[in-house]
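Archive entry. Fields below.
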Amino acid sequence: MVLAIQAKNLKIGYMDEEEQITWATRGVDLSVEEGESFCIVGESGCGKSTLASAIAGVLPPHALTMGKLYIFNQLVINESERNYNGIRGKVVSLIPQNPGTSLNPFLTIGDHFYYILRDVKGLSKSDSIKIAQEYLSKVGLGKDVLEKYPHKLSGGMQQRVLIAIALASEVKIIVADEPTSSIDANLRAQILNLLSKLVKEFKVTLLLVTHDLASASKICDRIAVMYAGKVIETGLTSSIISKPRHPYTRMLLDSVPLLGSKKSLNPLPGEPPSLVEDFTWCSFRDRCPFRIEQCSVEPPLIPVEDEPHLVRCWRFREVS
Amino acid sequence: MTLPSLYSRIMRRNLRRTRFKIGVALTTIIVILSIIAPLIAPYPSEGYGYVPANASERKLLPPSTQFPFGTDALGRDLFSRVLTGTRTAVIQAVSVILISLLVGMIIGVCAAYFKGLIEVTLNYFTELFMAVPSIVIALFLRLTIGQGLHVVIISLVIAWWAWYSRIAYVYAKSIVELEYVTLAKLSGLSALKIIPRHVIRNIFQALTVQAISDLGSALLEASAINFMGLGLPPGSPEWGVILYEAITERGIEAFLFSPWLVVFPGLFIFMTTLGFSLIADPLREDLDPRLRRRWKLWF
Amino acid sequence: MPVSLNYIFKRTMLSILVILGVIVFSYLLLMLTPGDPAVKWAGNPRGPGAVKAIELARVELGLDKPLYVQIANFIYNFLTGNLGLSIAYKIPVSQVVISGFTATLELILFTYLFSIPLGVWLGLYSAIKRGSRIDSFIQSLSIVLASTPTFWLGSLILLASNTFTGFLPYGRVSSKLVLSTGFTPITGFYLLDSLIQGNIPVFIDALVRIIPPALAISVYPIGVLARVTRTLIAEALLEDYVRAAVAWGIKRETIIRQFVLRSIIPPVIQISGLSFVYSLVDAMVVETVVFGREGLGSILLDSLHKADFRVTLALAVYLTAFYIIVNTLVDIVQATIDPRIRL
Amino acid sequence: MLEIQRGVIELNNEVIKLQDVTAGYKTVTGFKSILKRYQVVLKDINLTVSKGERVAIIGESGSGKSTLLKVIMGLLKPIKGEVYVYGKQIYKLPWRERVKIIRKIGYVPQDPYSALNPLLTVKHAISEPLEALGLKDEIIEQRVREAVKFVGLPQEVLNSTPDELSGGMRQRVLIVRALVAEPEILILDEPTSALDVSIQAQIINLLNDIYSKLKTTMITVTHDLAVAQYLADRAFILRNGSISEEGPIDQILSNPRSEYTRKLVLSYYVTSFKNNKSVGTE
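PREDICTED_STRUCTURE:
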């Protein structure tokens, strides 16, 4: 199997105007295989969106990087060096978070396709319109959309357009950053189903970033759970959902209100630690009911027997 | 973050910038000069426009050690006149901006807070006065109530308050839609308390920055009015008036044969305006937290 | 994209209302400021004819009638351009104002022809080179430019021109040339008129004389536009759609052209409209006192010296109306360009 | 815990009643406005809430939820119909009198980030409702401290400003602010939509705790069926400005009568966990 994405001890931080650095990811190790649907789950501030930006090549200029990130064996982040030549739009494309603001309000949908296909593949206007029509019909939109400006479309339609755009340049990896967070529940299901269907059809590697474990479990083969800038657990979706090994993952599952079963919600008190300071202990230590002496040293990703499952917890056996 | 700590943080951040430092230095010098000018001027009474007894001997002398900026057509020491003009300049700029800001802010905020007819009416008057050119008002006042500092200030205030009203309206409009204003309304607090606490407090930073950056423009316009002979009477210690006198006395020749009459007062206007602008410019970037980051063309 | 008629209608109605308000406001100024309005309207006449002139003015203003009739009359007179004879020039007031207006407008339009592109280009360049030495130079330059008193700069330019080239760019065009070539103004824009008539010497002379005052006036719009453009581009670069465009692999040049520059056009138009009016005052000061050109400035000074209230009021109303019309057009153009605005 | 309250509700003890309410916003569109004056958002809403009841108003974005809240809280006069709060037709009263009735409602707004003035301390924000009642400073201080303790916030939070607080903390502060004047009705506008799952669960538990202690009438407005299920016993489904279904929430979820509600419930299950087989009734 070819590795589509590989991160080695990747750290990304942002420096603010007071020269204080907030580390959004604090040493991420991650491998995503070609053709799989991989999901990064975590709550806000865990660094998942930053990681998505790093992979899509859109880290803001004030971001600082350390560690290494490979995309199809090309080194795109090498410590503080970033080089996305030949990657952006050619190997990786992005489905951005906010469909309302991610389309240029001054251009029609057709113009969007034209500029992308011209710059990435050198296509002419008529060719790119043909391709645009083809992909728009894949996402269930008619060709009348091409003439329209983005604000004329509903939120669901905008999201479909963004999916079509990401697919149109025939990339190998699609990064979807919270594609459904601003969409109503009934549309969310449609969009997610569409996305997973198309990803299978075009054999694209999908990296889905979301805070919603339930949607992630719908369409992904593997899940990585992030907490306070680190991946704390990765494994097959079924094993993460049914047998979480990290106390945080377990708490997440226990906190989701489920329709029809009024199980009691058992969130752990407290909130994620501040990412300004550097610390060596387990980031979940202060909220963890399983805490022991050893937790003042952060564990590495420990493999779980007989399963492609890694967990960053000393007491993962007791947790499940 | 409370208001005082916000201001101290802004100062700390900006004092690292060279341009801001130069601006603060220039403005400090001008303000100090405006206070002590009559004390340090070599010929204080000439500064106020009195023609010296031996005027005929010292007309239009070029700069020298005795008269660092030279003398004007009536034999007055230009250095003293320019120095004394600092005070007028500061008074003009500051009072115009302060009064306009106060009037405009109240009207703009009220228009945003009270909806319906009040909003429509106040916005109408704002739109109306936005369009009035200060120089024509000055001409009008000059013809009816004569000359003086009040003419300059009134005509500029008439032309400027609407500008602040519009800015305050735009900012306040977005504030009054926020939930904390709704919450305050629902708890039964009166508008008299909500407006200063929630609305004005939150638009104040933006308005102050705008006001500081407009100080320069107000001075430029005030001296333009004086330069046209519409504001202060001849002999007044004001830079625009000094330039005006140089020209009315001798027309175009003033430029050609006694350039010091033109160079020095203009230079002072320029330096003062520059000082205000240099202070305001980095503050403006502070208003938008996104711009504070090190944005650049990164792709 | 056609903007909705509704918006244009609304915007125009408001502008008409504001113009009416300005007329009423200036009438009230005439009435409420110290002094007898009839005396003011007659231009503070002295000597034997004074009593008669004042009586005439009283009838003309209709001071015996109720206030609303007076105001209605006044508005009617303004809209029909019938404001009587100017005290200073002895020709109809509206004619006086219009003749000065074309001269000043020519100067400002000429100035804006090069200062808008130059200002936008400077802002764009410094934004692209953000953080570099050239960026901080352009930023400093734009502050310095916007802080320069234009009448002072004008004087310095005049001085420099006389010292270094021996040419004094005084007046709009050399009267000798006008006589010798038989140049007759048609539109009042001399540059245009001379081109139409194929009168190249006059064109060159007018051009040489318009450049120095235009340079002096241009510092404000250039400085302001450079600064505003830089900020607008900074904001545009932070938009989500620019980030998305980068991720989709669109080239830098396309992003700057199609994504960034497009989005700053409406605000740039608006800022230009606002500074246009500021430049109007600048031009009035510079053209007359420094460069001895005829125009609104000279009319203003004449009306001051002759206490010509009719011209003063006409100036107030026509200038404000002009401002309002410019801004209405700016708003409509802006709304037409921006596909998001549907009002 | 959730089952205890059933049956406590006294009927005919209506605290809020909406009768045939149609509401909307004035459209300011130039000359057309003469003909078409309102854009109607709510149509013929009938809704009653009894004392001590927990009610949810469920709707997707654009269904008119926030307009409905404005109408209930006296901020938007309906075009047609009557709004009774504690038996009084609030829109027949001048604002001063209206506010006296509205004060009985504690309101927790939707977005915890825009609901706190960034330049005021938390203490200042919480004491505002008491200040409006004209209480003495010492009494205000004491009651603020008690209220903060009641929801389990540390007292230090009082001296901080909103930008030092996380979303969850802000939401708690807003709950304290709503509770501090001892309201009889609590209105929660999307109380958890801006929060993370674990914080959301904390807030849901907190609100349930508050209800079991104070028995305040609670109206929750939400788009999230699962959240509504935890915070309410009765529900109204709002669709395009009118109520498409109402009834006990369990019944609505297990046996929806209208096609729309069925779709809504179904789509929720589609995005629920793969392995969760407990679909349907309990």
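CURATOR_NOTE: Residues 3-298 of chain B form a domain with the MetI-like fold fold (CATH 1.10.3720.10).
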